[in-house]
Design a protein that fits this description.
By secondary structure, the protein is of the alpha/beta class. It has 8 helices and 11 strands. It has one domain: NAD(P)-binding Rossmann-like Domain (Rossmann fold), CATH 3.40.50. α5 links the parallel β3 and β4.
Amino acid sequence: MLDPKTILCTGGSGLLGREIQKRLPNACYPESKEFDITNYQQMEAFIRNRSIGLILHAAAFTAPPQIDKDPEKALDVNICGTANVVRLCMRHDIRLIYISTDYVFKGEAGPYQEADPVYPINKYAWSKLGGECAVQLHDDALIIRTSFGPNEFPYEKAFTDQWTSRESVASIAEKIVSILGTNYQGILHVGGSRKTVLEYARDLSGDRRIDPLYRDEVNFKVPRDTSLDCRLYESLTKQHQEEESH
């Protein structure tokens, strides 16, 4: 069994990090001012007197329109910052779980399996794929590709011509926590069933009206279908549950 006290989670103040913290309150959630992933020496100093067995790396610059305007920040945080986390894990023999995105796929042939070719269509996804490349250099690492949003859909419109496996952040956090104790290495897709973003939004919104939006109505690139084949995740969690019950 994995001791939560040996888990360090980056991005603890973010949408996913806050949900993880509800489920793992005894893990370590350093603030960016004390564990800045763009400052390797500071990261080294922070873990020096701590027993860390796993880093769940969820910190990222995640807004595609903002990244189009400021790609250098995405370079610093999502690529260089992730490379720093990888280096830290390599040097201290720490397992790494990296939260990536379904947007690494071109969006023409979902639902995608883990081994399918990747080809991002926007700068945000390229930066997250850059992070994946760094993580692949560490032997004891797991890349989780997923998609999530707030537990209540915050907008008045949602894409009716974009397909996804997106779920509420609470649901995705629950699924991620359920596999933290496994030793699986490689890539894993975590999400729900294939649906349009509009269907996803309406599922979360109850009686509140959500109107359709089309991809060509926005000023940034949106892939058509980045839904994920999550059968490997389902198989892994079933096996993990069976092992824990014995």
